[in-house]
Structure formats: structure tokens, C-alpha cells
Write a structure and sequence with these properties.
By secondary structure, the protein is α/β, with parallel strands linked by helices. The protein has helices at residues 11-21, 31-43, 54-64, 82-89, 108-121, 140-150, 203-212, 247-257, 260-277, 312-321, 337-340, 350-356, 370-383, and strands at residues 47-51, 72-75, 93-96, 127-131, 153-157, 165-166, 169-170, 179-183, 196-200, 217-218, 235-236, 283-284, 292-293, 299-303, 359-362. The structure holds pyridoxal-5'-phosphate. Belongs to the DegT/DnrJ/EryC1 family.
């Protein structure tokens, strides 16, 4: 089976991890700060807080922004459940904004209309999570403008997007947001096995997230309520978690970051090749907004169902049967039973549902060979009834 995504591990990655195993620190040593500095430096953010997953990063980002009971978090239905669940972890309510039919990202137009209505009803969101689907950045300038106008905070869920750019600046520079979150799960662009990071330019948000990832405990006298009792002293000044990243993970991350540019360039080469090889098939290929340079975590095609006699499900199943590990990103979150119980109806977000009925993620990862890519294309051609 050709998978839809796969990590790329070299001997240097392995050596970096082994070196940590033989060192004094398996956790809370020098590698985590080194990895944080590396990512912050690369993306142009002032601070970085490494954690054990992007899910944890989203959680502490929302907490740092003060999200709590009685508040609302809004995000897109076309995302992994974690982009929405972080609101529920904080005791807030979650609502959704439909996608733009061109980029499949949260639509600023739909956002504006929903904000207008919410203002009248006194239920404006406190936090909006903008997800850069497939690695293509959202229209952050428009979202940032609306944030100022309606007074909400913005978290970029850039789990798909490290190494990508928006209007010429790396995603993570957080020019139009408060915090940006990355994921280092093995299918993502850079991996630490499990892992995530929150970056921000705001000193207070960084300090708060730093506390929350490790029990709310500090050893910094300036954050304590009184002078330390002695050299052993620490204080718990907030209710935090154990969301720490290990030194092994950070060492792998540092090593992987050396190849980030390569990773993204290779993904662009593969996407360009798909674009050419699939151009005559009844598929809508990924459209890239001129403001964006995508990290290209995913390559999603949409079936033009009017132009083929076979259905989405049948085409998907046939691809899997033929050894092509396609996937679907994502099942609209508002249709998950847990969310449905909150009262969401499928028809609430029609663009998201239309996308769901047509989308297929084709294999896209650093080690995908041209030969494998040709195989993906050949199988698709056969299914869609077009010979080469
Ligand atoms: C992968 C992913 C997450 C969660 O990342 P983890 O590191 O696995 O917690 C969150 N949001 C999006 C959009 C993702 O793709």
C-alpha cells in the first residue's frame, strides 16, 4: 500500500536521538530549548513553547487567551477534531464557520456574516481557530481585520503548514494572529513522533503557556508571590498540565528542521507533477491563492461527480483495493456524534458537506517516488475511465 503520508527519517535523525539517549537528560534538558529556538528563528516568531502534541498546544493556547466558560470558540468544520475540542477542554462553547469553496479554508465572508449575526445576539466568539488546510494559509489579513473589529483573538492551527508562507512571510510569524500552533505527528511535514509547538510574539502569552505545559509550576522568582524559601524552591502559581516534550523528541525535531526547506520544495515538485498528470481527469485539483506558498501537507482532489458514473465511496474504495492509501481530510467535525448531540445539523455548513462528498487526499510525502506517483495516477485514470 502506498500510504497517503509518511515520515522521512535519515541516519542523522537516528544519530541525534541516540546521542540524547546516552546523555544526562531524557527530558527537561537543553534539546527542547534548542528546538524551540530553531523553529522560532525559522518562522520569525519571538517565542516558542514545545509540547507533546499540537492538541496540547491548542489547549494551552486557548487557556492563555483566557477562553473559559460562557465563551465561544469558532473554527472550520473541515479540520481534525482537535481544532474544535480545545474549546470544549476550556469549558467554552464551540461553533463553526463554513469553508471557502476555492481554498477549503474558513471563509472570511461567512465569518463576517456570522459575526454580524452573533453581535446582535450577544454571542461573539472569544477565539477563532484558523486552520491552514493542506498547508495553504487562510486569508489571515481579512481574519485579522475582523478580529480587530469584533474583538476576538486568533489562533492559527498550522499543523499542516510549517515551512509555508503567507504574503511572503513564514507561517508562524503570527502577524495577523495571537498564537500559531504546529504539529509534529509523523504524517505532518516535520516529525518528532508525537509533538507540537505554540509560537507567539506576545511575552505574556508565552510565559503563560510555558507555565501551563508543566503543572503551572515556576522556578522564576519574578513570577512568585514571595521570595524563594531556598534554592530548592518552586511555586505552583496556576493549574497546569504535564504537556512537556521529551529531549528525544526535540533532538529529532532539531535534526528534521535542517531539512524543512527540502521537505517543502519536494512536496511542491510532487504537487506540480500531480497537477500535470491529472489535468485532463474529471477532478478539481488544489487551487492555490496567489498570497500563499503552501506547506503542502496534503494534496486533495475533488471528484467532479457529474462527469463520472461512479460514486465517491466506490472510487475511494477501489483506490484502496488497488493499493493506493488514499484518505479523506476531513469528516466535517459538526457531523461527529459528539458534536451532533450539541444540536448541529449536517445542513448547517453546506460548502463543507459538498467538499466532504467529493474530497480524496492522494499520497503526498517526501519519499514518494515518481514511479509510485505514476501508479497512483494510472489507477485513478483506470477508475475514472480515461486511458493515458
Ligand atoms: C494533526 C492535527 C492536529 C493534532 O495534532 P497532534 O500533534 O496529533 O495533536 C490538530 N489540527 C490539525 C489541523 C491537524 O492536522
Amino acid at each position: 500500500m502506498i500510504p497517503y503520508g509518511k515520515q522521512d527519517i535519515t541516519q542523522s535523525d537516528i544519530d541525534a536521538v541516540l546521542k540524547v539517549l546516552q546523555s544526562d537528560f531524557l527530558t527537561q534538558g537543553p534539546k527542547v530549548p534548542e528546538f524551540e529556538a530553531k523553529v522560532a528563528g525559522h518562522v520569525g516568531a519571538k517565542h516558542a513553547v514545545a509540547v507533546n502534541s499540537a492538541t496540547s498546544a491548542l489547549h494551552i493556547a486557548c487557556l492563555a487567551l483566557g477562553l473559559g466558560e460562557g465563551d465561544w470558540l469558532w473554527t472550520t468544520p473541515i479540520t481534525f477534531v482537535a481544532s474544535a475540542n480545545c474549546g470544549l477542554y476550556c469549558g467554552a462553547g464551540v461553533d463553526f464557520v463554513d469553508i471557502d469553496p476555492g481554498t477549503y479554508n474558513l471563509s472570511p465572508k461567512a465569518l463576517k456574516a456570522k459575526l454580524e449575526r452573533a453581535k446582535g445576539e450577544g454571542r461573539l466568539p472569544k477565539v477563532v481557530v484558523a486552520v491552514h488546510l493542506c498547508g495553504q494559509p487562510c486569508d489571515m489579513a481579512a481574519i485579522g481585520e475582523l478580529a480587530k473589529e469584533y474583538g476576538f483573538r486568533v489562533v492559527e492551527d498550522a499543523s499542516h503548514a510549517i515551512g509555508g508562507k503567507y504574503q511572503g512571510e513564514f507561517i508562524g510569524s503570527s502577524r495577523h494572529s495571537d498564537i500559531t500552533v504546529f504539529s509534529f505527528h509523523p504524517v505532518k511535514i516535520v516529525t518528532t513522533a508525537e509533538g507540537g509547538m505554540a509560537v507567539t510574539n506576545n511575552d505574556l502569552l508565552a510565559e503563560k503557556m510555558n507555565l501551563l505545559r508543566s503543572h503551572g509550576i515556576t522556578r522564576d522568582p519574578s513570577l512568585m508571590t514571595h521570595e524563594p524559601d531556598g534554592p530548592w524552591y518552586y511555586q505552583q502559581v496556576d493549574l497546569g498540565y504535564n504537556y512537556r516534550m521529551t529531549e528525544l523528541q526535540a533532538a529529532l525535531g532539531v535534526s528534521q528542521m535542517h531539512r524543512l526547506d527540502d521537505f517543502v520544495v519536494k512536496r511542491h515538485e510532487l504537487a506540480k507533477r500531480y497537477d500535470q498528470l491529472l489535468a485532463d481527469l474529471p477532478l478539481t485539483l488544489p487551487w492555490q491563492h496567489p498570497d500563499s506558498y503552501s506547506g503542502l501537507h496534503l494534496y486533495v482532489v475533488r471528484l467532479q461527480l457529474g462527469s463520472t458514473s461512479r460514486g465517491h465511496r466506490e472510487i475511494f474504495q477501489t483506490l484502496r483495493n488497488q493499493g493506493i492509501g488514499v484518505n479523506l481530510h476531513y469528516i466535517p467535525v459538526h457531523t461527529q456524534p459528539y458534536y451532533e448531540r450539541m444540536g448541529f445539523k449536517k445542513s448547517d455548513f453546506p460548502q463543507s458537506m459538498a467538499y466532504y462528498r467529493e474530497a480524496i487526499s492522494l499520497p503526498m510525502f517526501h519519499g514518494l517516488t515518481e514511479h509510485q506517483q505514476d501508479e497512483v495516477v494510472a489507477v485513478l485514470r483506470e477508475i475514472l475511465g480515461k486511458s493515458p
